[in-house]
Amino acid sequence: MQDEKAFIAELLDPKTQNAAFRQLVSQYSRPLYSHIRNIVIDHDDTDDVLQNTFIKVFRNLQGFKGESKMFSWIYRIATNEAITFISSKAKKNSVSNQELQQKALNSLQADDHFDGDALQLKLQQAVATLPEKQQLVFKMKYFEDLKYEEISEILGTSVGALKASYHHAVKKIEDHINTH
Amino acid sequence: MSDFRLDNEPKIIPGFKAPDAYFDRFADRLMEQLREREEPKVIPLYKRRPVWLSAAASVAILVGAGIFLTINNRTATAEQPDDAAIEHYLVYQANINSYDLMQNLDTDDLAEMEQSIVVSDEAIEEYLYDKTIEDLNE
Question: Which of A33, A75, A162, A167 is deepest in the core (most CB within 10 A)?
Answer without folding.
Answer: A75
